[in-house]
Description:
Layout lengths: L14 H33 L11 H4 L5 H17 L4 E6 H10 L7 E6 L2 E9 L8 H4 L5 E9 L10 E7 L2 E3 L13 H11 L2 E7 L2 E6 L4
Helix pairs in contact: 3-4
Amino acid sequence: xxxxxxxxxxxxxxxxxxxxxxxxxxxxxxxxxxxxxxxxxxxxxxxxxxxxxxxxxxxxxxxxxxxxxxxxxxxxxxxxxxxxxxxxxxxxxxxxxxxxxxxxxxxxxxxxxxxxxxxxxxxxxxxxxxxxxxxxxxxxxxxxxxxxxxxxxxxxxxxxxxxxxxxxxxxxxxxxxxxxxxxxxxxxxxxxxxxxxxxxxxxxxxxxxxxxxxxxxxxxx
Length: 221
């Protein structure tokens, strides 16, 4: 009786292609980890500082009593309410008014100072990262870092909000050229958020004149 000999089962081999895929995946993983590590190091040591910087006390603040913040807030609330009703409204804020509003809020108090000269507002800030809702701050070693920055806000041509510009941006002693409102992250720029906020309250005009930021809503230009 003839007997059949079965060949041994065929062994599957990964081959060079399979090994190449594993090597490629490993290299990509190392690249991603390197990018994440580099981004973390850059943010922590390049854009953030280990200590706060002293902020100046503008002359406008000397004559502004703390109680004035309530009056300024009421003025802003009236502006918003009138704008919501589609009625024309105008409001002017001095540097002292803006600083009073900043100091009124416990989260922003002592972090930012605004001065106004001519048609330009100057903003200086030193904000502890602990005041932001950043997840895993302590785990990432960011809880004791500060965002130290300054920039200039220029009155837009013709008072048109879309023409507002922010220049001279310096973050942790690193200068950024151009208009900061045009910086794009994920396809969006700060100007998009500015115009969205302006549209919410029908703000049609913004000017920096006579030492004040003047806002207009529902007014033809």
